[in-house]
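Recall that a protein's primary structure is simply its ordered list of amino acids. Everything else, from secondary elements to tertiary packing, is in principle encoded there. The following example makes that idea concrete.
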Amino acid sequence: MPHVNVTLARAAVTSFFKRAAAPGAVLPAGRAVRPAAPPPPGPLAAYREVCGFTGAGPLPLTYPHVLGFPLTMGLMAARSFPLPVLGLVHTWIEITRHHPAHPTDALELTVYAEELTPHRRGTEVTMVTEARRAGTLVWESRSGYLSRHAQSAPDGTAPKAPAPEEELPAVDEWRLPGDLGRRYGAASGDRNPIHLYPLTARLFGFPRAIAHGMWTVARCLAELPDPDGVHHVRADFRAPVLLPATVTYAADGTRFQLRGPAGRVHLTGRTRRAPGPEPETGPGPGAATGGRS
């Protein structure tokens, strides 16, 4: 797979030739595929540490998204992709784990662009990532990425903001350091400039670097009593977390939130657990796997 830094450099070049919402924009029909390979153990360990996952059991629910990120970037950096990549903001994600995936499993990854939709702040693209083990779909996600520009409702009025979120009970308070975006970027490969430094973030309209949305989801899942038991999560990124920051983790049953000062909601999410024991398919821990691509 192409190195993410090389892809980001190519994306920076192609972004200058793209409009935020070109009329009649069409998504490319192609799919990007990574041949079956187990996750590299070093980056996985770094990811567990920066996100707060303990132990060495199944892959964290969010981790296949990280494995597929270079493929996603490759598709979005292509000239045929209609939106400029630089400045894209992750707005939501839905993840479903169909079967447990383990660190030694050889996973084949497929990524493709599914649809373009209007958003109250611009245009949003839905990207799909699928992970298969020995041909069986074990994990999939859909993510929304926003290209910000002026947007109006069909009747010419300004689109309405989402309704205020119900405040969930506070569970813990986290102090997030200013270098969190760089640390997570090193572990995940997502080095979008909006996450790295105040200067690079200001180029895209943010006063300071912002935390990765996927870090906030992963960190909230890691705080659950049994994160490996979650088989589905839907998370919506309501407002960026400017770094450094102090945030409140709140939860109530299947729901969770991340809030900032004055109760500003940064993230909302909801989880579902499997109704019963999940069947094991394919190779499990310690089984032989194919080579790494």
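The first strand starts at residue 32 and ends at 37. Strands lie at 32-37, 89-97, 107-119, 122-133, 136-148, 170-176, 230-237, 245-252, 255-259, 265-273.
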